[in-house]
Amino acid sequence: MLLTPHLLFAWLDGLWDGIFSTQGIMILLLMGYAGAMWLFLSSAPKVYTVMVSDLEHARQFYEQELGLAIADVPLHYYYNYEQTLGVASMDPLYVPSALSYSSPKRPSPSDGLWYQLKKNTQLHVISGASKGERNRQRHVCFDRECLELLLLRIQRRQLRYKMRSDRPLNFLVKDYDGTVIEMAEISARP
């Protein structure tokens, strides 16, 4: 079938009218929004969280012993932070007092310490872990991959460590001051 200039012009005119109709503009806006969200979320760093028994001791360990660079809080932690915790949809009666809306201090995304673990991977260190046996410093994490990256860093920095178990990953590391730190993977499975 041959397209004559008249048919081609009519087809382009119909396409033009469709694109710049209300529905066409809405589709273009939605496509633009989807593209922007994809770019934003795909460039966001992966974040691992480690819960520690002493935040100040952890600061010294991660900065001095492991030499991790301090990182900025990722933007996606500023937006909808409460929704990621699942707090916004919960009844305040069931929310622990530390997260309750009536509490004077609500958690903020900048609470804790932020470090650059790899190029697009960050480590968020927060307090809340209990002391380990023999009153050891304790660092716990739900992500095995995070602890494997930390173990690699410990090996590269030639810190003394001792493997306690492989599944779940659990090892002891001794910092330069001689303090023993237990690094433990916490399994979500019973």
TrEMBL record:
Alphabetically ordered keywords of this record: Membrane, Transmembrane, Transmembrane helix
Organism in which the protein naturally occurs: Thermosynechococcus vestitus (strain NIES-2133 / IAM M-273 / BP-1)
Keyword Transmembrane assigned: yes
Domain of life: Bacteria
Name of protein: Tlr1170 protein
Membrane-crossing segments per the record: 20-41
InterPro entries referenced in this protein's UniProt entry, alphabetically: Glyas_Bleomycin-R_OHBP_Dase
